[in-house]
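Chapter review: from sequence to fold.
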Amino acid sequence: RDPSVQTKECAAGIRTDEGLHYVLDLALSSQMGPVLSAGDRISASGILTPIELLSTDMWRKYAVEAIFSVTDSLRKI
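The token string follows.
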């Protein structure tokens, strides 16, 4: 969203088939997941937190809809 922000860490996340972007947070995961590469398709269970509900502006500069916090069962499909 902020054109002055161009960092490589923005690339780490999820893009849905509809083209929406989500931050991928693995901190709550109860298991070690597989090594992921760009273009991998995944299936996972977790919690979705819309950016608008966060008390910090840290993520608002990125064009993401929400943070997807994986809690378990992350796997490549």
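Two observations follow directly from the output. The CA atoms of residues 60 and 66 lie 10 Å apart. The mean pLDDT is 82.
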